């Protein structure tokens, strides 16, 4: 029979116990080490990894209190919280062994032991040890991946006054558990803002789970967000946790929340209100503990007025709102962003000497950037790839013509109604559909603004 690939350490001051254990266990495990002196445990653990440590409870002559065993158990677990420790104890010490289990031991064997029972206990313990090692490896790998992602998403750049206000809001709101709604056009960095909130929170070491609701079909919504049990539907081959469960303890980022239909909005609201979800195909409620951050490029407040978004859901998700300005309204940041992206792509495409000349930077600053930061990022990357020179020229960028705005001409003859419509349009565009902020700047109430929106068919 093949041996189990595992390292076993036996620590006992009785030579006959060590000899018997070594002879029997070497038949079943690839490595068995025995040690009569417990004082050598720190040295052994520093220089070798053991899958299982078998530990006697008493070492001094005549000792029966097991104090030494408890001390060494504590020492082992302090050095390695994932250590798997099997206690070796006499028949009369069962109560002590049970106490030790509560303090972190994995199991115990009675001496003189039965070989079959000892082997079964150790095989179970080695499986547990390997499972702990895998979990530790996966956690370290996940932490590395998370750090890499956060490094890539950590460049939330801007010196413009509008961005400074965004930073200040994130610093105030981040450490709280308040639900946050991020509003802004596509490409303005809504996920960057969400990740910045997560980094500022007490949940920063937990999961950040991103769900693009615009890409989740109505039929799979419950399965994706709440999970499902095996057999819940045709393709449900196994139990699966949903995004709410996966994010529990951390932050759940619901992007494109404005795309949800009213029935899906109702299901989401139920989960948020009860703070529990039920997997598809089961009746068992599962408690959830998330910090919710949502984002959209759609005017949710206006949609509420037209019955396309639930007002109670809006209240639930927007304890605090953050408005991300379009790039055309923060031109002071374009140079910084362009140089940042250029630095990234110089390294990526091994063109360390590539630069932007002043004329090109001026043109980048004047361009309207309908795709916002995402468009600037892609434009710089494409220019770096295609350029054969050491300086990026205007010709390396394919600038689209500025959009023709469908607005009234202020120089022409305007009626009062036309002027009113124009001002309402401008304020709604400026605040990405936020009724509260638009009404405040117009100097009217939210109700009055809703009446004007309906009046002008906006």
Sum up the structure in keywords.
458 residues, alpha/beta, elongated, Helicase, Ruva Protein, domain 3, 18 helices, Rossmann fold, five-stranded parallel sheet
- The number of distinct structural domains comes to 4
How far the N terminus sits from the C terminus, by CA atoms, comes to 79 Å
Structural class comes to alpha/beta
Radius of gyration, in angstroms, nearest whole number: 32 Å
Biggest sheet, strands in spatial order? 2-1-3-4-5
Poorly predicted segments: 404-408
Silhouette? elongated
Q: So how many helices? A: 18
CATH class of the largest domain: Alpha Beta
CATH topology of the largest domain: Rossmann fold
Would you identify the CATH architecture of the largest domain?
Answer: 3-Layer(aba) Sandwich
Total strands: 16
Helix content: 40-55%
Largest sheet: 5 strands, parallel
Strand content: 15-25%
Give the CATH H-level superfamily of the largest domain: P-loop containing nucleotide triphosphate hydrolases
Average pLDDT confidence is: 86
Domain Sigma-54 factor interaction: 156-385
Modified residues (4-aspartylphosphate): 56
Domain Response regulatory: 7-126
GO biological process, one term: phosphorelay signal transduction system
């Amino acid at each position: 029979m093949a041996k189990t690939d595992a390292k076993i350490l036996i620590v006992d001051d009785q030579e006959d116990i060590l000899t018997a254990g070594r002879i029997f266990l070497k038949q079943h495990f690839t490595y068995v080490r025995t040690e009569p002196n417990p004082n050598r445990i720190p040295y052994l653990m520093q220089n070798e990894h053991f899958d299982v440590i078998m530990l006697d409870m008493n070492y001094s002559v005549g000792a029966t209190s097991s104090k030494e065993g408890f001390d060494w158990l504590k020492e082992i677990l302090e050095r390695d919280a994932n250590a798997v420790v099997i206690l070796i104890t006499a028949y009369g010490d069962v109560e002590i062994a049970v106490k030790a289990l509560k303090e972190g031991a994995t199991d115990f064997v009675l001496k003189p032991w039965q070989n079959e029972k000892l082997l079964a206990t150790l095989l179970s313990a080695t499986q547990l040890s390997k499972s702990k090692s895998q979990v530790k490896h996966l956690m370290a790998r996940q932490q590395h991946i998370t750090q890499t992602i956060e490094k890539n998403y950590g460049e939330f750049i801007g010196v413009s006054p509008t961005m400074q206000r965004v930073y200040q809001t994130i610093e105030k709101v981040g450490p709280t558990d308040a639900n946050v709604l991020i509003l802004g056009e596509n490409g303005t960095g809504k996920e960057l803002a969400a990740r910045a909130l997560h980094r500022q929170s007490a949940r920063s070491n937990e999961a950040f789970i991103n769900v693009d609701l615009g890409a989740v079909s109505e039929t799979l919504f419950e399965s994706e967000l709440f999970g499902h049990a095996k057999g819940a539907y045709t393709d449900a081959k196994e139990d699966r946790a949903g995004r709410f469960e996966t994010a529990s303890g951390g932050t759940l980022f619901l992007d494109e929340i404005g795309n949800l239909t009213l029935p899906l909005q109702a299901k989401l609201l139920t989960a948020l209100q009860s703070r529990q979800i039920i997997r598809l195909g089961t009746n068992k409620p599962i408690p959830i503990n998330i910090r919710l951050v949502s984002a959209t490029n759609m005017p949710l407040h206006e949609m509420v007025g037209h019955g396309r978004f639930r007002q109670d859901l809006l209240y639930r998700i927007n304890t605090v709102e953050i408005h991300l300005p379009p790039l055309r309204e923060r031109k002071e940041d374009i140079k910084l962003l362009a140089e940042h992206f250029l630095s990234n792509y110089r390294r990526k495409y091994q063109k360390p000497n590539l630069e932007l000349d002043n004329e090109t930077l001026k043109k980048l600053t004047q361009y309207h950037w309908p795709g916002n930061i995402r468009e600037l990022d892609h434009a710089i990357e494409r220019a770096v790839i295609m350029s054969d020179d050491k300086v990026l020229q205007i010709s390396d960028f394919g600038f689209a013509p500025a959009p023709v705005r469908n607005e009234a001409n202020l120089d022409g003859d305007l009626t009062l109604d036309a002027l009113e419509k124009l001002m309402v349009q401008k304020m709604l565009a400026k605040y990405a559909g936020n009724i509260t902020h638009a009404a405040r700047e117009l100097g009217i109430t939210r109700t009055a603004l809703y009446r004007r929106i309906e009046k002008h068919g906006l």
